[in-house]
Amino acid sequence: SGHRRVSMLEFVRGFRNSGDGRILVYLLSVQAAAQIAGPYFTPFMLRSLNFSYVSYVTLIALSFAAKALALPAIGGLARRYGTRTLLWIGGIGIVPISGLWLISNSFAGLCVVQVLAGITWAAYDRFMQKYVKTVGDERLQKVPKDLDLKPYRDYHDWDLMRRMEEAIGAGKLKASGSLRSELAASGSAFL
Known about the structure:
about 190 residues; mainly alpha; about 75% helix
């Protein structure tokens, strides 16, 4: 099936000696820090800053909206400068922007902080999405004959389906004729 067992020692050595391993350790560290800090965010806003629930929800919504609105521009940056640029924007931006919560207690100031946080997290998340797909794509050698594409027919997976179709066309990936037809039909739905 293309997989092999590796010992724990070999696994750790591979992490330590590869760029992918260092990036993965970094990504896991950022996620761990965010998960540790996350539970303190709500009590800090509601108790320490005495924000109302409306203010709290507004700040959360601003970050989410900024992230959603920034994604097209972030995608353009990724296409133009590569995904490593996203890692720099997101990874370096997350830490100082989080520190701005210590400087400003005003609602208006924190609204600006939340918009900036949404943008930097959008860059970081987009890098993670691209990075995970890149690592996963390296191991794909043959598309299963019984692969059902119906769950993947949304816009977010269009790029992956397009790349699969290109790889099949170039002979880099083996697939049945019916799967080729289904990929082509799915891809044309997004044009």
